Structure formats: C-alpha cells, structure tokens
Amino acid sequence: AQSVTQLGSHVSVSEGALVLLRCNYSSSVPPYLFWYVQYPNQGLQLLLKYTTGATLVKGINGFEAEFKKSETSFHLTKPSAHMSDAAEYFCAVSPYGNNRLAFGKGNQVVVIP
Amino acid sequence: DARVTQTPRHKVTEMGQEVTMRCQPILGHNTVFWYRQTMMQGLELLAYFRNRAPLDDSGMPKDRFSAEMPDATLATLKIQPSEPRDSAVYFCASGLTSVDEQFFGPGTRLTVL
C-alpha cells in the first residue's frame, strides 16, 4: 500500500519568498509522484509529475520538485512566491504503471503581501 | 480543449432526498474516479471504474451511495437518502491506464440541510 504525508495544513509565505512544501511517501513499488494544485472553487490540476528519469522535475508556474529515493521525499519548491500562488497543494503517489492515486491531506498556501 | 464536466455544479437539498451527480469523462479515457472533499477528511476516494466496470468502491457508504457508468460518456454518483454529513464537494476525474495522470472536473458542491 502507498501513502503520502504532507506536514502543516496551512503554510504562510511572504510575496517574493521561497515556497517549500514537503511531501514524504511510502510505496512498496517504484512510485510515480505528483503535485496537484487546487485554486478556490475549482478542481485539481496537475503541477508536475515524476515517473522515471531525471529526478528534478519542472512544472507549470515556476514550480519544481526533486525526487529523493533515499529520503522517500518529493518536496515542491518555487523560488519566489506570487500572490497568484495562493491555493491548496496536494502531493500524490501511484504504484508503477497504475493511475490510481493516493493523495496527501494537502497544504493551504497563503501568500502575504 | 478536452475537459471533464460535472453537473450540477451546486446542489442544495433536504435530508432524505435523492441526489444524483453526473460526470462526463474526457472522450477516450478508460478510467473514472469519484472523490469527496471535506475540510475534516480532505480528499477521499469513493469509487474507481476501469472500462466502465467498478473495480473498487470500498470508500463508499454502501447503504446509501451508488456509482454507475451507464455508458463510456457518463458516470453517475447517487445518494439515497441524503444526510447532512454528506455535504461536501464531489469530484470526478478521468484518465487512461496507460498514462498516469488524472484529470479532474470542477466538482459538485452538495449541501444537505
């Protein structure tokens, strides 16, 4: 079975500061890893994903994440927060070759002007 | 621009009434997922279909919830009778088993009074 841990349900960041959201996973097989973003009153949309290959993955809106197998982590970062980054962010994992996802609890990001 | 559509977007009903939510997956997708999102529980998987067959509905209260796919273009989630604790946002997502990503609809916000 696979599971995802996201610590800190609410994260406040100043505009222009680094955004760092932590994700740790457990998986019995090589995982595919995802970050999704949910803007207010909308569905989830894919930010980025890791399947195989390069462990540093770049996504939309300036976000990137690094897969670290030894740490079972897939932390999401953005160098400089914008007001438009205020949203909820979900980390998810799926076993190799299966598109059924297990989601973390999510991080609600608030950007302070 | 292919999208998952859900109807209705908002539903207010009284306890004991039947509620039906509909989802049109992206054309050609062969997997459909139903999720429920609440503040307390986060994102919960209710049901999972592959090629219109239900593979897993263990997350769904069996006595009042039912999910079906009458055809490849329509998935339904029904609650009968509805209760106030069913108030939540219900998301449908679709995908391909050969591709790992899930594509989410905009959700149905259900309020049961």
Molecular structure report:
The complex is a heterodimer of chains A (113) and B (113). With 113 residues, chain A is mainly β. Chain A has no helices and twelve strands. In chain A, strands 2, 5, 6, 10, 11 and 12 form a six-stranded mixed beta sheet that branches. In chain A, strands 3-9-8-7 form a four-stranded antiparallel beta sheet, with no helix packed on it. Chain A has a two-stranded antiparallel ribbon with strand order 1-4. Chain A is globular, with a radius of gyration of 13 Å. The relative contact order of chain A is 0.34. With 113 residues, chain B is mostly beta strands. Chain B has strands at residues 5-7, 10-13, 19-24, 31-38, 42-50, 53-56, 65-71, 74-79, 88-95, 102-104, 108-112. The N and C termini of chain B lie far apart (36 Å). The model of chain B has no long low-confidence stretch (mean pLDDT 93). Chain A binds chain B through residues 32, 34, 36, 41-46, 49, 51, 90, 94, 98-101, 103-106, and chain B through 4, 31, 33, 42-43, 45, 48, 56, 91, 93, 95-97, 99-102, 104-107.
Cα-based radius of gyration of chain A, to the nearest Å: 13 Å
Task: Give the oligomeric state of the chains in this entry, treating copies of one chain as homo and distinct chains as hetero.
Answer: heterodimer
Number of separate helices of chain B: 0
What's the main sheet of chain B like? Answer: 7 strands, mixed
- Helix tally of chain A equals 0
Mean pLDDT of chain A: 91
Helical content class of chain B: under 10%
Number of strands of chain B: 11
Which term fits the overall shape of chain B?
globular
Instruction: Spell out the helices and strands of chain A N to C.
Output: EEEEEEEEEEEE
- State the separation between the terminal residues of chain B, measured CA to CA: 36 Å
Q: Which range does the strand content of chain B fall in?
A: over 45%
The geometry of chain A reads as: globular
Strand fraction band of chain A? over 45%
Cα-based radius of gyration of chain B, to the nearest Å: 13 Å
* Structural classification of chain A: mainly beta
What is the terminal separation of chain A in angstroms? 41 Å
**Category from helices, strands and their pairing of chain B:** mainly beta
The total strand number of chain A stands at 12
